[in-house]
User: Which sequence fits this backbone?
């Protein structure tokens, strides 16, 4: 009478749902309540028109990630070196590098060291992080603040190190001014937006 209709979870008005006593089998009620009403909105997962919106990201992904990775794989099948005549005039050598790599004992040693490093660092981070999290649950507020501060400082250290190195490279007397032959030029102060 008040003009307000309550809807069930499937969008059917509650007063149109069958009552339990009207249906002999309880499964029929469940099936009717769970059956979709109207057009499903989750059937279309991909729309071709969205490629226009994704085009800039796809171009950047191709140019900055997939392209260089593919080029690196190609270079692995050449005789390119960092110095010497093959640093500029390299040729495709096929599987010669792969064959040399498979027969090199240093390659297997470096694989083993890399595996130790990855497993140790990942497990170390997980184990130490879990121990700290469990221990800090019952710690006092001052201890939590101190440990949290240390964790944030160590988390920020790589970014700080990169920032300080970039500052040292672009300031007066830095690496960039030395390379360009302008020892007193402070690139960071002169054009900070360009440096950043």
Assistant:
């Amino acid at each position: 009478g008040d003009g307000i209709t309550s809807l069930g979870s499937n969008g059917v008005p509650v007063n149109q749902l069958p009552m339990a006593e009207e249906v002999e089998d309880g499964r029929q009620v469940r099936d009717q309540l769970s059956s979709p009403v109207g057009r499903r909105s989750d059937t279309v997962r991909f729309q071709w028109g969205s490629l226009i919106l994704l085009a800039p990201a796809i171009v950047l992904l191709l140019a900055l990630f997939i392209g260089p990775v593919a080029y690196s794989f190609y270079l692995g099948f050449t005789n390119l070196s960092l110095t010497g005549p093959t640093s500029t005039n390299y040729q495709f050598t096929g599987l010669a590098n792969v064959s040399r790599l498979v027969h090199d004992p240093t390659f297997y040693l470096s694989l083993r060291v890399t595996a130790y490093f990855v497993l140790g660092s990942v497990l170390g981070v997980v184990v130490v992080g879990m121990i700290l999290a469990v221990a800090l649950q019952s710690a006092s507020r001052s201890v939590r603040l101190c440990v949290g501060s240390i964790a944030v400082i160590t988390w920020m250290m790589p970014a700080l190190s990169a920032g300080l190195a970039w500052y040292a490279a672009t300031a007066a007397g830095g690496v960039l001014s030395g390379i360009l032959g302008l020892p007193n030029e402070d690139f960071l102060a002169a054009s900070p937006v360009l440096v950043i």
Summary: The CA atoms of residues 31 and 135 lie 49 Å apart. The chain has a mean pLDDT of 80. Helices lie at 26-34, 50-75, 96-102, 105-137, 141-170, 175-179, 187-190, 192-195. The first helix runs from residue 26 to 34.
